[in-house]
């Protein structure tokens, strides 16, 4: 929806407003995360702000079917590295194999696009860096609190509240008009986005963060189908082949 909308930033703000409301509702029923989680919350929110900015820019510069797989495809590689460095999660042979497959798939995906929009590639890779940041900090944060949902709730409040505040300060009237015209579709997207993110963070409290990030990125395969059949972007056997390589790498990481 962000890619399809003429007002990507406002569309993103509408989606995140659902997260803000859900987070606020959960926060009233749960204990505070505690001082130990404060740094993780602030850091995670900052990485999410960076993610919002870079995501919207990458969608302007590239097709959805290219931008999304690059941003999501680099994430397992980066998260596995960050988990090794900061969370003391070692890599197994199967994980290394999966990382290699993901890297090869991404390289196959972007070879042609490098001659079209290098800036778009940089935005997409930067989006992957931002995802890695909030995923790694989120994993550390949910492990530092008694109730993982408490951390998720407050992260939604901080990230959603920040982007809503940005709209109110820059384009309040246009934002209100956009909200009225796109309420139901944006609300549904917000429910899906908030649910997916919350479940992924919750899962990192029970299993290695690299495996969670890898499993989550099976969406790359669906993104390739959406780009062709819903967004009418060009069909390319190279794109499909690259997406399948990435998918195989993600599957290998997930079972490692």
Automatic annotation (TrEMBL):
Membrane topology note: Multi-pass membrane protein
Main localization (coarse): membrane
The entry's keywords: Cell inner membrane, Cell membrane, Lipid A biosynthesis, Lipid biosynthesis, Lipid metabolism, Lipopolysaccharide biosynthesis, Membrane, Transmembrane, Transmembrane helix, Transport
Record domain EamA: where: 119-251
Membrane spanning residue stretches: 12-31, 37-55, 67-87, 93-110, 122-145, 151-170, 182-203, 209-230, 237-255
One Pfam family in the UniProt entry: EamA
Location of this chain's protein in the cell: Cell membrane
SUPFAM superfamilies reported for this sequence: Multidrug resistance efflux transporter EmrE (SSF103481)
Family: Belongs to the drug/metabolite transporter (DMT) superfamily. Small multidrug resistance (SMR) (TC 2.A.7.1) family.
Entries under PANTHER family matching the protein: MULTIDRUG TRANSPORTER EMRE (PTHR30561:SF1), SMR FAMILY PROTON-DEPENDENT DRUG EFFLUX TRANSPORTER SUGE (PTHR30561)
Protein's name according to its UniProt entry: EamA family transporter
Native organism: Microbulbifer elongatus
Phylogenetic placement of the source organism: Bacteria, Pseudomonadati, Pseudomonadota, Gammaproteobacteria, Cellvibrionales
């Amino acid at each position: 929806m962000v890619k399809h909308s003429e007002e990507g930033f406002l569309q993103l703000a509408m989606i995140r407003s659902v997260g803000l409301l859900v987070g606020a509702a959960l926060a009233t029923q749960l204990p505070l995360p505690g001082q130990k989680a404060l740094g993780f919350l602030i850091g995670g929110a900052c990485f999410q702000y960076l993610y919002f900015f870079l995501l919207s820019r990458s969608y302007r510069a590239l097709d959805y079917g290219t931008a999304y797989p690059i941003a999501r495809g680099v994430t397992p590689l980066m998260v596995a590295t960050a988990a090794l460095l900061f969370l003391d999660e070692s890599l197994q042979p199967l994980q290394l194999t999966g990382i290699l497959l993901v890297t090869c798939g991404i390289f196959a995906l972007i070879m042609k696009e490098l001659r079209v929009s290098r800036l778009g590639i940089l935005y997409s890779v930067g989006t992957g860096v931002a995802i890695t940041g909030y995923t790694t900090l989120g994993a550390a944060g949910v492990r530092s609190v008694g109730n993982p949902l408490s951390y998720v709730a407050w992260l939604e409040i901080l990230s959603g509240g920040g982007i809503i505040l940005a709209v109110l300060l820059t384009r309040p009237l246009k934002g209100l008009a956009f909200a009225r015209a796109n309420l139901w579709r944006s609300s549904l997207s917000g429910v899906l986005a908030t649910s997916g993110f919350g479940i992924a963070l919750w899962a990192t409290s029970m299993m290695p963060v690299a495996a969670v990030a890898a499993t989550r990125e099976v969406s790359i395969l669906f993104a390739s189908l959406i780009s062709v059949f819903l967004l009418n972007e060009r069909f390319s056997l190279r794109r499909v082949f690259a997406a399948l390589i990435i998918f195989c790498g993600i599957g290998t990481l997930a079972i490692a």
